[in-house]
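Q: Predict the bound structure with S-adenosylmethionine.
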Amino acid sequence: MGKSSKDKRDAYYRLAKEQGWRARSAFKLLQLDEEFNLFEDVTRVVDLCAAPGSWSQVLSRVLIKNEQFGRCAWEDREAKFRQRMLNVIPSEPTTQEESQQQEQKDAEMGNIPEESGDRPDVKIVSIDLQPISPLPGVITLRADITHPATVPLLLKALDPCYDPETSTSQQAQHPVDLVISDGAPDVTGLHDLDIYVQSQLLFAALNLALCVLKPGGKFVAKIFRGRNVDLLYAQLKVFFEKVYVAKPRSSRASSVEAFIVCINFQPPEGFKASLEEPLGVGSRLSELQEQQQDPISQAEPPKAGDDGITEVILEDVSGSDNKNRWIAPFIACGDLSAFDSDASYKLAADHVSLPPVQPPTAPPYKRAIELRRQNGGAYGKSPNRCTQ
Ligand code: SAM
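A: Predicted complex:
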């Protein structure tokens, strides 16, 4: 598929390139923030499964406001973006030259990119298996979030004085306001397997979050909604006052993807987070749930947003073990007049397809391409190939 046809098929892919985001996922986080005000009073954030880094870009722009362009230029671009979404006007391509002109205009008007924002002590740590190209104000780590060794790495990145020899994760301070995770495995197409592997990533993210979140903190993570997802919602309710499942408009309606948004971290009394003894389905979680009151009786009825655009849908709960199941309010977020991520849009006749903002640094297919080249290409000299 050509770049131009992908531009047409996926409005958010095109907008991401125009606005300088490394991936279209940036819009998911922005739309979640629109609904849940995720960044309010937040200065210390951990971004899990962060490559290529569009969520970290959002954090850098919102918390530090020093990435690529000043705040005024950014707001101006936002306004233009909203205008286009409301009127569904085909976009004008933004060239590098135009960006530079905008930056110069901002500088003349005194809108110089700030070295640091108005939030003190901002700390953003981003982790992925893949390398993440540097971003201003973001500490990037290449690590596996399912591995226990990642906790001390993360704690050290958050606090350079942290000494893993003398401290344990339990003793370390819990300094983080928000943990976000967009973790996804390489999708196999085998529905149940994909959902299972994704749930393992989600539990790894939750376990890491429990080690670093401070009371009152927030946790946002991608989920693939499967059959027993209500068990997971009930388990999250053990740790957080409010748990929602949200679907941003930029996430394709046809995809099982959604995001859990957990607000106000309240660890049960005496709970000690540890990656040596992680939580997972059927383990310590059930005991913790037993200790708590029935979460169903604590559940708040879901409310529609004040803007009248929020849909609230209750998911069906079936199965006998209803004590450990809980229905999380389902919230569709993002302006309903925004682009539909499943639709194709007509491009302007003079539309120019822009190159990706950040080409993959170490794509898994890179080695395969190298090997194929060594073999003289797809129809090359490999003895195993049929050259007829
Ligand atoms: N939020 C990112 C952004 O905005 O650019 C996109 C994340 S992408 C959908 C999913 C990422 O999960 C991939 O970069 C993948 O390398 C990462 N991932 C999968 N398993 C992981 C693991 N065990 N540890 C760390 N990262 C993992």
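A: Residues 191-212 form the longest helix (22 residues).
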